[in-house]
Amino acid sequence: MEGFNQTRVTEFVFRGLTDNSMLEMLFLVTFSATYMLTLFGNLLIVVTIMFTPRLHTPMYFFLSNLSFIDICLSSVTVPKMLEGFLLERKVTSFDACIAQLFFLHLFACAEIFLLTIMAYDRYVAICTPLHYSTVMNMKVCAQLVFALWLGGTIHSLVQTVLTTRLPYCGPNIIDSYFCDVPSVIKLACTDTYLTGVLIVSNSGTISTVSFLALVTSYTVILVSLRKQSAEGRRKALSTCTAHFTVVVLLFGPCIFIYTRPDTSFSIDKVVAVFYTVITPLLNPLIYTLRNEEVKNSMKQLRQHQVFTKVFT
């Protein structure tokens, strides 16, 4: 590709979250604990669903996929961030930067599509319960998951091509703790206005349109709940509230960052930490603490020492 032939920069230097050594140590301890809890919590959900036959339903199938994506999403950025807290000079090679960018968008986009599918699943279950088993059978669920990974891959390839086709001849300092399209293209030795427009039309549009579709879906669900029994309304509201909380936590930062790639704010790093570090941790907490079925299944598996066998 022409962009590769013009590339002179061989490495990028991260500014990181802070240059205060005391804060770096505090962040190292805090985010290390957060990352370990993220891995453990999401893996716990995957194992619980895998070893509990009554949880082999579309909703929990999607939930296990969400936990898997959260493990991958946090693993793209957090280990490199933790390494940076220990190093005075935070460096990554050009190829490693592009790889990080690719996988970040792959997993983030896959999660956006998955949350949209989960909203559709809840819509079918609540609004057309008699047709649910036909519409959302496991074959359809598997096809939807394949489609979301395909869509995420295409989206990520587009973002990667848009980034690598640009010439980079210096500077090479990224004002962040990881590589992302908006922060990297600012370092290109050419006008990036058109690339910025394409990013908005890709990432920004996907985030915004998916979010509006989700809001519409949940609005229809809330309206239809008036016909449900009190117990049915309670269960549906509990599930939908958990889903919508996750939606806001992910979509808010994505819309904030990717609808304005040419503009930077001081709060951008905080927003980035939220969706790359905090949200993957909150997802298992939101779904397990509010879900009696999952909690009961975990207790039963613990009694049978399933977790001991899996985690050892």
Automatic annotation (TrEMBL):
Q: Name one Pfam family in it.
A: 7tm_4
The entry's cellular-component GO terms read: membrane; plasma membrane
**Where, by residue number, does the polypeptide cross the bilayer?**
25-47, 59-78, 98-120, 140-158, 204-225, 237-258, 270-289
Q: Which PROSITE patterns match?
A: G_PROTEIN_RECEP_F1_1 (PS00237), G_PROTEIN_RECEP_F1_2 (PS50262)
Task: Give start and end of each G-protein coupled receptors family 1 profile domain.
Answer: 41-287
Q: Which GO terms describe its biological process?
A: detection of chemical stimulus involved in sensory perception of smell
Topology relative to the membrane:
Multi-pass membrane protein
Coiled-coil residue spans: none
What keywords does the record list, in alphabetical order? Cell membrane, G-protein coupled receptor, Membrane, Olfaction, Receptor, Sensory transduction, Transducer, Transmembrane, Transmembrane helix
Q: Where in the cell is it found?
A: Cell membrane; Membrane
- Determine the domain of life of the protein's source: Eukaryota
Gene Ontology terms for molecular function: copper ion binding; G protein-coupled receptor activity; odorant binding; olfactory receptor activity
Family classification: Belongs to the G-protein coupled receptor 1 family.
* Protein name as it appears in the record: Olfactory receptor
Question: Gene name on record?
Answer: OR4E2
